[in-house]
Automatic annotation (TrEMBL):
Domain TnsA endonuclease N-terminal: start-end pairs: 18-100
Keywords carried by this UniProt record: Endonuclease, Hydrolase, Nuclease
Entry coiled-coil feature ranges: none
Protein name per UniProt: Heteromeric transposase endonuclease subunit TnsA
Transmembrane segments: none
Keyword Oxidoreductase: no
A Pfam family this chain is assigned to: Tn7_TnsA-like_N
InterPro entries the record matches: TnsA_N, tRNA_endonuc-like_dom_sf
Organism: Massilia frigida
Length: 192
């Protein structure tokens, strides 16, 4: 997808990695509104459609801006954001402003790290062994899971790629809101 800033790119990475997001549209629509006898146009940055929850498919429209820009130019943005809120409410959508405080988090770092493993082919032999060991351990850490599963360092290193693929695809769960390390708690996903 295209993006206008590195902050917007990072938000797209977060949305893309979120398993609850089904659809992402960049600059999804434009609004025209009257200002001082003329017309202005506003185009939000991103629209995300989430998985159905209780019969509802949540849609959120996002504006991505640095905190400092919002602080310095709030008067300029206020009217367009109000129009976006109105437009979204008419459709039972939500409008949210996100800043680097929401985006530049451990979740973003984890998503950047794990995304490269999502497309890896399944290494079935390693997957089966890791799944078997994890079932026996319950909650553990990547380091402990590899140590229990394999004695040889070469096999541990080879299995690590499959372990990260399993985390990236949600087959193994962890908290992505904290920096991911070899000592992070991991557990078998309830759906896997």
């Amino acid at each position: 997808m295209g993006f206008e800033s590195s902050l917007e790119r990072d938000w797209l990475i977060c949305l893309d990695f979120d398993p609850n997001v089904q659809l992402i549209l960049e600059q999804p629509f434009s609004l025209t509104y009257a200002v001082d006898g003329g017309e202005r146009r506003y185009t939000p940055d991103v629209l995300a459609q989430f998985r159905e929850q209780n019969g509802v498919v949540p849609v959120v429209v996002y504006e991505v801006k640095p905190v400092e820009v919002l602080r310095l130019e709030w008067q300029k943005f206020q009217r367009r954001f109000r129009e976006a809120v109105r437009f979204c409410r008419e459709r039972d959508w939500r409008f949210k402003i996100v800043t680097e405080k929401h985006i530049r988090t451990p979740y973003l770092q984890n998503a950047k790290f794990l995304r490269k493993y999502r497309g890896n082919p399944v290494q079935q032999m390693y997957k089966d062994q890791l799944s078997y060991s994890l079932k026996g351990l319950g909650s553990t850490t990547p380091q402990a899971l590899l140590a229990l599963s394999y004695l040889e360092d070469e096999k541990k290193m080879a299995a690590l790629t499959e372990l990260w693929r399993m985390v990236a695809t949600g087959e193994i769960s962890t908290s992505l809101d904290k920096p991911l390390t070899m000592h992070s708690p991991i557990w078998k996903s309830s759906w896997a």
